Hints:
The complex is a heterodimer of chains A (about 120) and B (about 550). Chain A is α+β, with helices and mostly antiparallel strands.
Amino acid sequence: MPSIKSLDDLKKIREEALKKQQLKETSGKTEVVVGMGTVGIAAGARETLKAILDMIESEDLSDIIVRQTGNIGLDSFEPIVQVNLTGESKVTYGKVSPEIARRIMKEHVMGGEIVTEYQIEG
Amino acid sequence: MKATRSMILVSSDQESMDRGALEVFETLQKQLVTFGLEEEISISMVDDISKRGASPLILVYPDAVIYGPVTPADVPFIVEEHLYKGRVVESKQISPYDLSGRVAWLSSRKGTLPAEHRIVLKNVGLIDPEKIDEYIINEGYEALGKILREMSPQETITTLKNSGLRGRGGAGFPTGLKWQFVAGAKGDKKYVICNADESEPGTFKDRLVLEGDPHAIIEAMMIAAYAVGADEGYVYIRGEYGLAISRMGKAIEQAREYGLLGENIFGTDFSFDLHIHAGAGAYICGEETALIESIEGNRGEPRPRPPYPTTAGLWQKPTLVNNVETLANIPAIVRNGPEWYKSIGTHSSPGTKVYTILGNVNVTGLIEVPMGITLREVISIYAKGMKDGGSFKLAQTGGSSGSIIPASLQDTPMDFDSFSKAGVSLGSGALLIANEETCVVDLAKVLLNFFRNESCGKCNPCRIGNQRSFEILTNISEGVGTLQDLKDLQMLSDQLYELSNCGLGQTAGSPLKDILAHFKAEVEAHIKLKVCPAGVCPMSGHRTY
Lengths: 122, 545
Ligand SMILES: Cc1cc2nc3c(=O)[nH]c(=O)nc-3n(C[C@H](O)[C@H](O)[C@H](O)COP(=O)(O)O)c2cc1C
């Protein structure tokens, strides 16, 4: 790992990381983000995440990036899942059980149709 | 209170009333019905806004538009144009400048409502907290690089002072000033401590930052260390926060790998090392001197002060203790400058405040909003109204330093000074919102039960005062209280405040003071009529104490 000794070093690392991120964004890959704070995990985010990963495996989906993040503050709606399809704005879903996660994967990620029943304002 | 998309306030100070504010209010009510908006828009009268010669005023939220002077004849047009069609009626609009009361701070927030303003939580819920690169992409460690390479320690402190940042750990102490004390203290070794004990009931704001953006805390602690001349730090995290501890651990490791923690940071001669200390679940260990004792391996009991930690803290060395939320503001202040920070919030309390919302509301969770927002706004805009159409009775602001806030204060700007003027406190940033089914005796009993259990027992006023207050409240809740009990509660509240050694006891009596000041009739009903108006207390007639 490179060591950061100046503001220029920091800038370089930032630019490289940014490039990697943009590469991901323009690669046509879909991003599925699961909120993994304490509240999310207590509400079942691990099971939700597992359902998403299982779905990717069983349906043999490629080009999907699954990420975790902290709690966005909407505790009453945990577990929270966000879907970023390339070229579209981010969609936030609330109270995502494993079953709902499978529906979101099928209908939204694979089929391109937002599952509006579980959509919340992000 | 229902969830509404917009809210109208009509001024009801004496001048406004003389000039027909009531008719304006009534016409507004009728017009809203005419346009079918009565479900979407709420109206209330408030007496702390005014402008000479322009009364009555009406304020439209969240647009932050002010009209005045408004006559009943103006109302239909304003309702149709602004509220129905969404166009501001410029001919009637007045500038928010030189208005008095809450209108003045309202102007500074134009356009920031109803959206939240995220500084502390900027990255939380967006980045992967276990990847340092994602923090760096979002301007991470830039502020540290900037001060190490371009600013002197004193310039860093001055920046903080100019920003007006005040501590978010409960007391609202000016952060820059505290840094100045530590910088000026004599010592061959100095420490920086992040207080992440967060054991105030109902509070979980700090946890979100630790779990969602741990690098922000590391960066802020290093900025602080450089400014005050420290080279070692501790993050004191509440033991129950397992995920926070592990994420902070990972973050420290990653920062070390990049050379951002360790020796000669950014190629300068500044060095810093950071440790995590997990607490063991005692509330008192959030108090800074008890926290320091706990790190030293002693029983978590507060020290007498002075000396303050700023001169003799950890291992008797000058020590800076700051709260997580306080620290999380710092990288942004360094990056964007103090003027930027001061433009947010209110004059005496710049910046934002993170609140955890819980209780009888439709949406619970966490928000970060500019200082100076009101409880009414929190409930109607962010919490989307009271649950099941209940009405708002009171809010409890959390922690030993919190208050019980009656509905009559729901239009008071929430900032350090406005709240202290009203005799209440922001506490730890929890907002427990309660409806009319909450009994104030029961609420105070729950709080005092917590304090009597958490009192460390070192000083008598706190150990005995909390126990005795709890006993009296229990008697009242069982229907065996006497009028003498009310006098005793008042006295205990005063003595806790005056005689206790630390903040725990000093503020533990505030629920007693608050319910006697704002809900005396309800407490008296338990004693004189032997009924609990909210139907919560057991009222068994049996005496336990
Ligand atoms: C009983 C008690 C508990 C406290 N608990 C906390 C806590 O959990 N977190 C915190 O930051 N401050 C807590 N404080 C306040 C600290 O003593 C101290 O004022 C604070 O950490 C200073 O940080 P600030 O200047 O950034 O606000 C507590 C105080 C008392 C009296």
